[in-house]
Amino acid sequence: SQTIHQWPATLVQPVGSPLSLECTVEGTSNPNLYWYRQAAGRGLQLLFYSVGIGQISSEVPQNLSASRPQDRQFILSSKKLLLSDSGFYLCAWSARGNLRDEQFFGPGTRLTVL
Amino acid sequence: KQEVTQIPAALSVPEGENLVLNCSFTDSAIYNLQWFRQDPGKGLTSLLLIQSSQREQTSGRLNASLDKSSGRSTLYIAASQPGDSATYLCAVRGGSNYKLTFGKGTLLTVNP
Q: Cβ–Cβ of A108/B105 closer than 8 Å?
């Protein structure tokens, strides 16, 4: 069966510090991968998605970047965090070629920028 | 631009009651619609996915319907239990891309 991992689970960082959040998927190959942010009082916002190694699409201009160094690894980064980067970050995957395109989510990372 | 609205924002019911959660979307040209459950501080759990050609999907006590022409979906929960308490999110996928557009969710509380 497929499993998706995210770490760390929680993170408190000062403004201006760098960020690296990691997501890995087990039990599937060539998945589509996604990063979402859930801010208080707002819906989930798609930040990035990737259909393959090194292929990243950005949905909104922002202070963040994403990379996919391996088939089942997706990383969210920032060089300098802003207060507005606080939120709950969720990684998700879907099977490429699956007509149902169902997305499955990880446990999330709670980021607080102080 | 697709917009997804969920009404009500919060709902409190006694245990055992049947209930309906509503989801509406502005662009009917969707590929599919997915219902999720989110427990506090946790990730999303996929409940049901309905393809644009389908009218409904069922899983246990859950039944989701889709009326694409009117831009509406409902999630019916039968015989609600306290363990059903969570936020329920509706998300639609456009016809030509990978993007899911989410509603803000309905916070359901089932009281014992």
A: no
